[in-house]
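Extended Data, panel c. Modelled sequence:
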Amino acid sequence: MRDIASGAEGELMAVINENVSDSVAHAHWVELAYIRGVSGREFTTAVGNIEAVIQPVRCSSGQVRENQDGP
């Protein structure tokens, strides 16, 4: 998956509805995507900011086809 905002790529690990408010009186819930980058470190971004990454895959016959990475 790719975070559109930063361009960072990785594997989608989870989507969580999380309270991101710094106030006890007023909750602010956001759907966050947790993505594990190639370094192994996870980062978060809004679910609306992610897109699937299309990568070419070479078949055993040597032909190239597109493979969609992610869900």
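The chain has a mean pLDDT of 86. This feature is highlighted in the accompanying rendering.
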